[in-house]
Task: structure prediction
Amino acid sequence: MADNIIRGKVFITGDNIDTDQIIPAQYLNLVPTIKEEYEKLGSYALCGLPDECKTRYVAEGKTKTEYPIIIGGSNFGCGSSREHAPISLGAAGCKAVIAKSFARIFFRNCIATGEVYPVETPEDLNKTLKTGDEVEINFDARTVKVISSGKVYNTNDLGAVKEVIDAGGIFSFARNSGMIK
Result:
């Protein structure tokens, strides 16, 4: 990916979004290494959210989302250790998830798969922004800027994690750096 700036519309979620909400268990039989199944996996991203969610992350009948950035609250990605969770988000077209905190295994799966940047911020942006707002993530400045208001929020530094995700995941990073052949 290697982008230092990501800009796009956001999709707002709550606190404690678990991996079953990100990608329900009935879709775990899809094999992400098969192109058609990878795309189908993306079409189901966040389909396990409660019915109160008025907007679907991926519109019915589509495989890609119009929201490249997800804003979560605390403990995003909690639950089981399924790596299908960040893969489904990446397959749907998500570039980054911004949250107050992440479940450790989800954070690590984002890095391992290279699908999505897990961006932590001390702010509860899911309580400030609404679905459809446009933001710009600047990795160099470690900021999130709300386009309509110009308001800027700080993020935590991704450090070496960004290089691994930029490379496309842990195995691509290891190959590119000569660690494995």
In short: The chain is about 25% helix and 15% strand. Residues 87 and 115 are 6 Å apart (CA to CA).
